[in-house]
Amino acid sequence: MIKNFLKPNLYRSEVLMVNDKLKLTLDNSRNIFSLNENKDETNKFNRIFKKFFGFSVPEIAKFKLNDNSIALWSRTKSYIILTDSNLDDLTSTFDGLASITDQTGGWLSFKISGKGSIHLFEKLITINLENFNEGNVIRTSIGKINCFVFCKKKGETYYIICPVSFSNAMRSRLIQLIELS
Amino acid sequence: MTSFDRINSSSIDTQKEINFIFNGQKYRGFQGDTLASALIANGVKLIARSFKYHRPRGIISCGSQEPNGLVELIHKDFREPNTKATTIELYEGLEAKSQNSWPSLKYDFMSLNDKFSKFIGAGFYYKTFMWPASFWEKIYEPLIRKAAGLGKLSYNKNERVSEKGFLHCDLLVIGSGPSGLVSAYLAGLSGAKVILVEEDFIFGGNLNNETSDDSKTVAHKYLRSILKDIMKMPNVRCMRRTCVIGMFDHGIFGALEKLNQSKIDQIFWKIKSKKALLCTGALERFIPFQNNDRPGIMLSASIRTYLNRWGINNFQDVLLFTNNNDAYLTASNLISSGVNVVGVVDTRDNPKIFDSRIKVFQGSQVINTRGKLELKGVDIQNKEGKISFLKCDILGVTGGWNPNIQISCHTGVKPVWDKKISAFIPGKNNVSTHLKAVGSANGKFTLSECISSAEKAVLEILNDLNFKLEKYEIPSISPENIDIDPFWYVQFGSERKWVDLQNDVTVKDIEIAYKENFRSVEHLKRYTTLGMGTDQGKTSNVTGLAILASLSKKSIPEVGTTVFRPPYVPVSLDTLVGHAHGKNFKPTRLTPSHNWAQENGASFTESGLWLRAEWYAKKNERNWRTTVDREVNAVRNSVGFCDVSTLGKIDIQGKDALSFINKIYCNGFAKLPVGKVRYGLMLREDGLVMDDGTTARMSENHFIMTTTTVNAESVYRHLEFCHQCLWPELDVQLISTTDAWAQIAIAGPNSRKIISKIIDPEYDVSNEKFPFMACADITICKGVRARLFRISFSGELAYELSVPTQYAYSLISYLMEIGVEENITPYGTEALGVMRIEKGHAAGPELNGTTSALNLNMDKMVSLKKDSIGMVLSKREGLHKIDAIKLVGLKPVKTDNQIVSGSHIFNLQDKIKPENDLGYVTSSCYSPTMKSYIALAFLKNGSERYGDKVKISNPLLKKETYAEVCNPVFVDPTGDKLRD
To answer: In this predicted model, what pLDDT tens digit does every residue of B888-947 receive, in sequence order?
Structure first.
């Protein structure tokens, strides 16, 4: 009998590598959306945003989070949202205020934690890690892979979000560096 | 295996013996030794043969300025040639051999060159090897290449692990001698973020090379104690074995760190610093005199370093030759450790006598040396002209000191001449505010001056950076006297006097260059190769300039300097590459169907960064052509599917999205209804074609643009530029969704049947309800979100089905299940390419950045009724020539004659010459549908020449084919299949 449904092949959350200094985890438990504010809707958009997510719109190069959602500033009036909410919820909430684009499955999230984090990122990104504090996010490239990096706890916990087509390459690179550390 | 006992030294650990091999012989050293110090301690004087004349040579220095001691390091799997013995940290099992000698170092056949030195002086190759001309490539060049160069490669894979990294700091301190230590300490106390780098494997610089006599005890104690404090400061990062190899713009420095006992062998750091201090000290100068290159002749301060740092006192009779006070310190130290010091030959008439134990030959010069494989003695001449012989096995030479200023010149700042010290120091009007030189690097040679200049510089920098320094202590140190009388070379005698030991450049060579009118310092450098070796002239440049100045009767500053460029020391290519080689050279992008394709026997090809399935071979298929032909036939006769997810997908949303798109494409989009797709041609500002694709209108204000795979990023960037810079007033959002959606092309006469099996029942894909170029948001397989586009690249009835990426594997597996009856066939990029050529669709080879809409037979698509990017310049005369090239099809006259892409087209009667060239072939393939090879090409006046026969020339393979010009749409030119 032919099956009449499709199964999503979502990368599960799993620990990819761990040693005494670092832990690399695939953290893919949430839906991902691009949220782009429509023109001249800022006040209303900000209000609805805060009401829906429980925190205000993040400032430039910052992110905000709570138990359900993380919102990254990605560019002017544009945010990447990692959330437990679904597309329908977002669409109905932000109807007319913003465009919502479902990116779930299109991006993968890696979590790097441990006291060796700073030394690892020194070999990955060019920014001054001393000034990359909790709550900061940057769009950058790691090994020629365009990605977002955000800092959950300075010196201890960071996330990298990259397009899924690059996820194998990103994973290999991170594992290679952690093995060498 | 031999060794000599060492005297007391804090830098080596005599409890930890290290065994190593040099030229096949086993030796013993200690932890803390370099290869050079261990060899000297073992009495090895002959280390190498010189570059051109193969003269026997020994170690002359103790650092990276070493011109002679180049060895080949032999690792397990690869060799590292041209490594300086003076900088190699000794490790257990080290194996090295000397270079440039055969069959052995002692008996080198090529030492014959020395006998013919009169004929092979500087620039000899400009005057020889000219006749006959035919000999040059076959005989002269191979011979010269074989004889030239140093070291050999193993051609084995280099297993060294190299990485790159990025650091930031407030202050970068380059060098950890006295001035560097004081700088790092004071800056660290203020709370500034400091990086202290040291080329050597221990910190301290000159501190490690000197003893503490009474006058220096206080200073040395202080410096040693602040070094300990620095190592504990959390805001000071101490990096030894780290050499700053270059200064670049904006305060960025490149530094190579070699790691010990780590899985990573080396890291190339880019350090961004707000300020930097150059504390690299000074390098001792050599003095040219006759035969000044024998093994056993060394720089005086280096002898002192080997004595004090490495505890080596196995010298028998040491003579020193000097024009300044420093040699007396060497003499004193040697005498105190039991070495016989024959005396100090001092060019000055009345030098101050520091130590009554030292015999001084004042107003005298060393004029020649004796010995072959090692020094046996020297001839000296006093000012009365009397010549006498002095027996010695070691001659220490010092002609003064050159501040080590190279890094300060890397951004183009010229050094300036300091008459007091007869040396160059960093330019005072340094346009870069990032770097300041202090201590010996700035011509302050005494310890007290080093410390005080560092203190002054750091306080200024901390003030600039708004750091406050509360309390600190620096002990007062009594000043010393540096007394130097400039002396550049010994004029006596006609035998060769070496200036540049590494490249075998002599005083005579400089004189010849001058006579032949190579009088600018840049010409002198290149004609003689002075300073062009791996030591970069560290021991020879200034002496060479002084000789040129004397010949040209100018002052040294008037003569000027050559340009110092990075790297400061030679850097192997793997350092600059880091980890990015082999598979890591570039990241690979995998398509959503990759795993499925791999499981089902696909062969892959690279398409930009993507890895795409090229074809799916079956077991019985002999070659790839058989497979591809099968795939094409399967699509043309029934149905196939192909993963086309790599095409760029850009969501364009917003009230002004339509207006925006209408300005981007040159063809009209203003009337595109909801639920329809249109082909779009995108021009550059100059009117040439940038990219093509389709744009679908999913709803009133929601569009999906597709681009070619290769241009996905550049088109997105282009759209962003247009939105942000050209039309910021438009309410439009651009979101790249290339990775978020998997897109599968389902093509062939049975494609509608397949689609009907998977879409949910509420959707109607009949030809009436879903005609050619329709699009819609749908659901498939009981509610999975999807998008359906009725577009065709193959020329068959076809659809492109988009699902969120995570469903791709499941969808494809499902298509295979439900398509059994129709014999659904996966096809790859090769079959895709064949079909698009059969259909005459332009792709990358045709959209090559030099073609216009007219060339592509799409000139009528360019709407003149609206403004769009590239519309204005697309009208220029140059793009509308009467005989402009046009896209045509080519069919070989003999159907099995292959037409090769890149071939050029000529009239039958014309000779194959550039002036007769009519165009070129862009794409070609074997067409199983046409049962012939076919091609697409650009041909002058192409659309007027259907039916003509032409000649296709492939000069690389020296082949010619004859073909007929035809319509580029070989299959279904009326498009009936598309609209079926």
So the answer is: 999 999 988 999 999 999 999 999 999 999 999 999 999 999 999 999 999 999 999 999
- Report the distance separating Cα B862 and Cα B387, nearest Å: 93
Nearest CA in chain A to B585: A143
Residues A132 and A164 in one domain: yes
CA angle B67, B68, B69 (to 5 degrees): 110
Task: State which of A102, A128, A144 marks the end of a domain.
Answer: A102
The answer to whether residue B664 sits within a structural domain is yes
Report the pLDDT value the prediction gives residue B130, as an integer from 0 to 100: 81
- Residue B950, strand partner residues: B907, B963
Query: Could you tell me the two tokens for A143?
Result: 């090994």
Asked if B791 and B743 count as a contact pair (C-beta separation under 8 A), the reply is no
Same domain assignment for residues A77 and A20: no
In a domain, B859, yes or no: no
Instruction: Show residues of chain A in contact with B785, CB under 8 Å.
Output: 102
Residue-wise pLDDT for B117-162, tens only, equals 888 888 887 788 888 888 888 898 888 777 766 777 788 888 889 9
DSSP string, A20-52: SS-EEEE---SEEEEEEEPTT-HHHHHHHHHHH
In-domain check, residue B415: yes
- CATH of residue B745's domain is 3.30.1360.120
Give yes or no for a contact between B343 and B361, defined as CB atoms under 8 angstroms apart. yes
Tell me, yes or no, if B74 comes closer than 8 A to chain A by beta carbon.
no
Are residues A82 and A134 both part of a single domain? Answer: no
Share of chain B above pLDDT 90, in %: 83
Last residue of a domain, one of A80, A102, A124: A102
Helix (H, G, I), strand (E, B) or coil at B71: strand
Tell me how many domains chain B contains: 7
Residue B430: predicted pLDDT: 52
Shortest Cα distance, chain B CAs vs residue A179, angstroms: 9
Range of the domain at B170: 162-283+403-464
Residues of A in contact with B808 (CB under 8 A): 9
Count chain A–chain B contacts defined by CB atoms under 8 A.
134
> Which range among B132-141, B190-199, B237-246 shows the weakest confidence by mean pLDDT?
B132-141
Are the beta carbons of B129 and B140 closer than 8 angstroms?
A: yes
Q: Are B704 and B761 within one domain?
A: no
Q: Are A78 and A22 contained in the same domain?
A: no
Residue A164 and residue B651: Cβ atoms within 8 Å? no
Q: Please indicate if any CB of chain B lies within 8 Å of the CB of A118.
A: no
B273 and B190 in one domain?
A: yes
Task: Kindly report the nearest CA distance between residue B819 and chain A, in angstroms.
Answer: 11
The reply to whether A118 and A97 lie within a common domain is no
Of B836, B868, B894, which residue is a domain's last? B836
B374 CB burial (10 A radius; 0-12, 13-18, 19+): middle
**Same-domain check for residues B642 and B672:** no
B34 contact A CB<8A: no
Of A106, A168, A179, nearest to B805 by CB-CB distance is A106
Closest residue, chain B, to A99 (C-alpha): B653
The closest of B698, B608, B703 to B664, measured between CA atoms, is B703
Q: Residue A137: beta bridge partners?
A: A150
Report whether B437 contacts B445 (CB < 8 A): no
Domain of A171?
13-28+107-180
Q: Are B771 and B684 in contact (CB under 8 A)?
A: no
Instruction: Judge if ipTM > 0.90.
Output: yes
Q: How far apart are CA B968 and CA B632, in angstroms?
A: 18
Dihedral sign from CA coordinates of B842, B848, B852, B855 = negative
Question: For chain A, what is the domain count?
Answer: 2
